[in-house]
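Moderator note: this is an archived Q&A kept for reference. The question asked for a predicted structure of one protein chain; the sequence and the answer are reproduced below.
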Amino acid sequence: MQVQYTWYVLLLLVAAGIAVSLALYTWRRPTIAGTTAATCLLLALATWCVAYAFQLGSPDLPAKIFWNKMRYVGIAVIPAAWLVVAMRFTSTGKWLTGQQIAWLAIEPTITVLLAWTNPWHGLMWRGYALDSRGPLTVLV
């Protein structure tokens, strides 16, 4: 498989590296409110960046489809993780229980499952095509 190297791919990988570095930094400070949720948020962001970089760097349709589905692992987690970070950081998170966080995880789980099972139901995407009019071949 040939890979398309561009500045877009490089910048996404740099962003993922920064997100992982910040995740490690926050993970080592467990006394600060919201660090676990912030670590989860940053790792989801890194997953999104890496998967999108690989999607942009992949030249063929099956690889782009695979990495597009991998992006949703990060994309789906970010809103729920961001809400938990905000609530923990503003001290309103004291009302957040493990059960409530588990309820918040339902929507991201369903979204990821829908993305990976899309060939059977078509609820996420109706079809795929490659567009190479710009500097990259992108999935549309």
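Archived answer notes: Helices lie at 7-27, 35-57, 61-89, 98-104, 106-116, 118-121.
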